[in-house]
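look at this:
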Amino acid sequence: MSERENSPPEPHAAASEIDSPDDHGLIGKNDGPWWMYPLVLVGALAIVGLLAERANRPPMPEGTSLAEWTPLEPADNKPVAETVKLTIDFGNGATRSFEKLPWNEGMTVADLMQAAKEFRPGIRYEAKGEGKTAFLDSLEGVAGGGVNERNWLYRVNGEHAKKSYGVFELQPGDEVLWIYERGEGE
């Protein structure tokens, strides 16, 4: 054996004598787990999607807070009896319900629909006419089919309405059901 092999390394060895990262096969290899990069990409896309969805929401009216805008209980602490319920039945097993929308003196079903539209998340609907001639043409993107087809009909407390929703006055505790069905609904 040579004297160099048996002697301890010199404190300041030349660069050529020190092991390089290439000697261990480390150059050109990934430092982290390979699966981390797709997760980071998915996370970034999710954040961008959430921000885009939030940007597309209609703004709240000025001067309102989230608590006022999406009421869990009536803001003026009225008894539960002074609310009305709205249910939408799409006729295919899907429903949407607003359990406690605030009732006001002289409130019509049309006023109830407007209250549900302003609630967040609210409903979307299209109507024709006003008062006695008001007709609900489309609800949540589902349009009525016309004569002898399925249309949006409403009931109050289980009774089929016999007049326009624009003039039907509600009472506290009433339950309004809009149902997408054919005919008179009876």
Remarks:
- Residues 101 and 112 are 8 Å apart (CA to CA).
